[in-house]
Amino acid sequence: MSTHLFDGLPLRVGRHVQGICDRLAKIVKGTHGLEVDPLTDIAICCGQTEAFAAAIFSIIDPGDEVILFDPSYETYGASISIAGGVPVFVALDPPYWTLDDGKFLKSFTSRTKAVVLNSPHNPTGKVFSKDELEVIATACCTNDCMVITDEVYEHITYDKTKHISLASLQGMQERTIITSSLSKTFSVTGWRIGWAIAPPAIASAIKNIHIRITDSAPAPFQEAALTALESQPQYFESLRQDYELRRDFLARILAEVGLRIRFKAQGSFFIFVEIPEECLLSDVDCVKKLIEEAGVVGVPGCGFFHSNKQVEVGADNFYGNRYIRFAFCKSDDTLAAAAQNLREFVNRAGAFDRSEGVKC
What we know:
globular, 14% strand, 10 helices
């Protein structure tokens, strides 16, 4: 397997707060059973977004293909394109967002350099199963390519669903770049503390790129991160339980409005709801209506779809513009206010009324 690894520039050492890499190494050992050298295998970056971009820049040459699962978070494809790579989207099958082994395996070519895996998944809330991960791992080993994972929601899973890091599967640690951050687990998205964990040569390249883009992640927040990463197991269980209650609350409210929830989020803090078949408006139009008439904001699903936007699912029903993402990482007061607004909206306007879908 060949990678350019940011050739041609001398290595500069990034500014890591003493102890933070040691702590991360202990965490991935305890959580995933991975042996990681804190001196050579970890790069601290300005959030997962920079860690992911630096990972892409470290291994992708112009013309290299990178496989992504669709729908997907929008920054992945952008980073690949900036590096001169070619995003190749493989659609997950609605409504449960399952991986079609055949479609996935057919997406590999002689130019495939890497696969991007986000689990738990934004925007759907899917957690990839052990069987699906085995398929991905086998394909990557067979085709001799890398995997870049986004595991920022790893501690936010529900209904006894467990996150499994792809790097923990046989033969995968040496070909996996794990990216993650402090943001979601500790509700500090503005701190911009993230990391990449990778084989030494790739981690070195990521550090080299990072130091030339942002020089250093904020040192005071790295110090705070070190404290946060010492949190005891009960913190993570409390976080999970709290978000699970919020998920269930918001799901009930959205169902009352008439939005369709066939897939219950297994992880993350998003609910990806379907617009009723009877509703004649697109996802963008429905979101505008909710903002203007209910004061409640969702994200149109079309922004997460990149391929197969016109794949038919049932008679005259194309799923690329039939979903809306809602976030439940809000305070109880905010969720309660949103619920009240939505109920008043339905009572007033009859929105999403299945018997009179044209009202939507």
